[in-house]
Here is the input.
Amino acid sequence: MRTSACFLTLAIAGLLAIGSADARVRNVTDPQAPRALAEAGPVKVSWTDPAQFSEIRYSRNRWESQRGNWVDDLATYFQKNAAKRLPDGQRLDINITDIKRAGDYEPWHGPRMDDIRVVKDIYPPRISFSYTRFAADGSVIDQGEEKLVDSGFLMNSSQALNNDPLRFEKRMIDDWLRREFRDDRVTAGR
Here is the structure.
């Protein structure tokens, strides 16, 4: 009886140790983290070192700003939604160079509010990236650098019911894609 109780205790301790090894908090500035999405389809998305992004460099709570997988989430969103709008045969390469998420931390409210992102119109979302768009034959159709800022991000009432923490940044991406590929939908016959 005593042997089975010891075995059960050791088994539970082992499972907890294995589970906690994978349960570490993800950090977007981890040097081992990838700096590009796996190539899938016509849209390639990469990004520079997130430690240099405004979201982290100018944050009032750097630790909270670098937690999570938000860079990868935004890159995946960019890749998926750009692929939907890109005309057949074309390719798009995007390199994200800066992100400042909507809202910021206001530590002066006290230690209980230190890890809460406060979303106000004085903290608008910003995304900077460069892009190159290729024709089916590999020639460059368009290229450039974009610096997206949505100063009126709180004016859209449809966002009030959305609980996605990246909803404001994703809307900026959607707006850019709509502008960039406005005429291509008609010419691509979609």
Notes: The chain has a mean pLDDT of 84. Strands lie at 43-47, 91-100, 104-105, 117-118, 126-134, 140-149.
